[in-house]
Amino acid sequence: MQTLARNGLSAAQGTALLTAPALSVSAGCDLLNADLSFAEDISDDLVGGRVERNLYANIHGTCDLSISRDLAWGNALVRPHMTLTDGARSARFDLGVYALTTPERRVGETPTTFDVQGYDRLYLLSREVGADYTAAMGTTYRQALLNAFASAGLSGALIEGAAADSTLPVARTWLLVPDNQADPDQTSSPVTWLRVVNDLLRAINYRSVWCDEAGLFRCQAYQEPVVRASEFDLTADDVLRTIVGEDRTVTGDVWQTPNRWVAIASNPPTGVTPSEANGLIQVRQNLTDGPTSQAQRTPPVWSKTFSYEAASSAALAGLIDRRVASDRRLTRTVEMSTGPLPIAGHADIVTLTDAAAVVFGKAQATSWSLPLDGSDMTWSFELIL
């Protein structure tokens, strides 16, 4: 969810820079304060590393860095960045903000170097709440989210979209649960601030909270990948301009792909029993479309049932439609390498063109790994069309 039109460059200029034959790549790193303000340039202490993102992980953004400096591990926030230059244009791309943990020191090395893992600011949300926590009935979801971030002691949250101004139909309470108590509502583990935030977002059919390249928490309405615009093109067919590597793999998977989906609202208003008539039970079926449809499968019906907190029947419908699209989209995936693309963001939509792999059209990036030394990065995509 970033764009080529960044850092003072138009989309066309950004494309020209990324595909330039004489491209030069360098990396650096900033030390930040807790409020994300700049503290110090520690680029001279950055030995190397990589930045990675996984759309379906609990903490999406991670990094592995080598740093020749002893920092306040566990508290230090760093912002690695990459600069691309082609002789005519130069642009810096911030690569996220990370809390650094678990340093390994190389004994006897001069200067002393630490190999350290880092996690984006979702790591700071993944702390246990440590008490019962309640969002009151009638509170807007926007305010409930702001309250949760504030209670977690964190700032820098952007909450977008009108759906956040709808109100909770009933009070929502997250109970304190001991670590060894098997409570189905708490998935056998204590509640974290990350779960509180994501439960509230899911109820209004928003995507899970994510952190952008500046380290800000982003809360946005979910949009199906098929309706989102492509952010950049990756083509393996233009030998003069391609940055796509030789290693490409296409995988098809129809293992237990459902063709009937049922969603039930787990938080109906007091006195209301969920049913299809009142929209608090939503059913979707794939009767004839493709090899996983009921017309083509033996046995014909493969059902999955889901229970969702939902602000309304419309939100429940959006959640089950989102589930259906995801289940069907994951049946075809692509893995490939490319040259360095520091514009990579969260759930990027790209256009793939690869005649050899028989892949054409839009895809969503599910994961990527970017080395800071300018060598090729790797991607995983799920095909949309």
Question: Which helices and strands appear, and what pairs or packs with what?
Answer:
Blueprint: H1 11-18, E1 24-32, E2 38-41, E3 46-54, E4 61-67, E5 77-85, E6 90-94, E7 98-105, E8 114-120, H2 122-125, E9 133-135, H3 141-151, E10 157-159, E11 172-174, H4 193-203, E12 210-211, E13 217-219, E14 232-235, E15 244-252, E16 260-265, E17 281-285, E18 303-308, H5 313-329, E19 332-338, E20 349-354, E21 359-371, E22 377-383
Parallel strand pairs: 10-13, 14-20, 16-18
Antiparallel strand pairs: 1-2, 1-5, 3-4, 3-21, 4-8, 5-6, 5-7, 7-8, 9-11, 12-13, 15-19, 16-17, 19-22, 20-21, 21-22
Helix pairs in contact: 3-4
Description:
- The chain has 385 residues and is mainly beta.
- It has four domains: 11-121, Thrombin, subunit H (Beta Barrel); 125-219, Phage tail protein beta-alpha-beta fold (3-Layer(bab) Sandwich); 228-253 and 331-383, Beta Barrel (Elongation Factor Tu (Ef-tu), domain 3); 260-329, no CATH class.
- It is built from five helices and 22 strands.
- The strands form four sheets. Strands 1, 2, 3, 4, 5, 6, 7, 8, 14, 15, 19, 20, 21 and 22 form a 14-stranded mixed sheet that branches. Strands 10-13-12 form a three-stranded mixed sheet, with helices on one face.
- α3 runs antiparallel to α4 (193-203).
- The longest helix has 17 residues, at 313-329.
